[in-house]
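Intended use. Records such as the Growth arrest and DNA damage-inducible protein GADD45 gamma entry shown here are meant for training and evaluating sequence-to-structure methods. They are not intended to support clinical decisions.
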Amino acid sequence: MQGAGTALRELLVSAQRRGCLTAGVYESAKLMNVDPDNVAFCVLAADQEDEGDIALQIHFTLIQAFCCENDIDIVRVNDVAKLAAIVGPSEDSGEPRDLHCILITNPNEEGWKDPALEKLNLFCEESRNVNDWVPTITLPE
C-alpha cells in the first residue's frame, strides 16, 4: 500500500510538470465528457468531513461509474491536505483548487511511459482481482 502512495505522489508531480493534470470535480467531468479516451488515471479525494457532503458523494458515484465503464483506473485518497501539498495551488491564479477529483491525461508526446502510472495500473488491477474496485491509497508523509 505504501508503495502505491509513493507511486501516486510521483505520478502527480510528473503529470503536473507535463501539463497532464486536471483538478476539480466539474473540470474533470467536462474533460471526461469531451475526451474520455485521453484520461489515463483518476484520483478521488475526500477528508472525513467530506463524507457527509451528499452532492460530492453523488459526483463521486457518477465519476466512478464513468471510469469503470471506460476502463480508467481509479483510486481514492483520504487526505486532501497531503494532496494539496503535492499539487499545490492553481498555476494560473495561485488560488487553492478543488482537489476532490484529479485526472491524469495522456501527454501529447509519443511513447511517454510513466513508471509510476504503470505501478498504479498494476496496483488497481490487483485490487480488482480481490473485488476492491476503488482502492484507497495512503499518501506518504
